[in-house]
Amino acid sequence: xxxxxxxxxxxFNVLRPWNSCVKISxxxxxLSAMIKVLRILLFVFVFSGCVFSSHGDKAAVKKNYNExxxxxxxxxxxxxxxNLLFVPFRAGVGVSASEELDRVSLMLVKGxxxxxxxxxxxxxxxxxxxxxxxxxxxxxxxxxxxxxxxxSALSGGNKKLTLGIDGKMxxxxxxxxxIHFSKKETTIQKSxxxxxxxxALGQEMATPVxxxxxx
Length: 215
Fold this sequence. Notes:
With 215 residues, this protein is of the alpha/beta class. It is built from five helices and seven strands. Strands 1, 2, 3, 4, 5, 6 and 7 form a seven-stranded mixed beta sheet that branches. The longest helix is centred in the N-terminal third of the chain and has 55 residues. The N and C termini lie far apart (127 Å).
């Protein structure tokens, strides 16, 4: 004896497995799409973070703010040359005398003298031993000397270094100023070094002098 099922139930039974497959397929497709979106978002987040970090590091590595100038007052006398003595700069108003300041001052002298010796100059550089023979003397003051540790804490490891000087080259006989040096440099970087900064500032002092000696 054959039992005939209603047509609607027969179709339902036939379509039910297919309907389940469709649902599973849709869920799988949605999960795949979500995973792709998450991967894209993760990539964008990581990439943007790298770019930000890279630019941030570059910005943090070094920023220089240079003020002041080297003014040549008497170029004719400068070109005559003579025995030159560079007296290490002393602590100016508001700056404490210290061993660090002494080292900075010596590096300033070193940067100036070594730069001067690379060019043609009519000077005989003197040391402390023969200071009495000086005809031209560079002397002056360190007007600012500061390493900001508070700035370092706020800027994620950067240090703010400030070095300022004010001095002159004078003719010992007439006491007339031949050159006026007035410089201030501020550097923001992670590996700030006052000695390197002082050496570079000494170079900046010497470069205009060499240019002023050109025919």
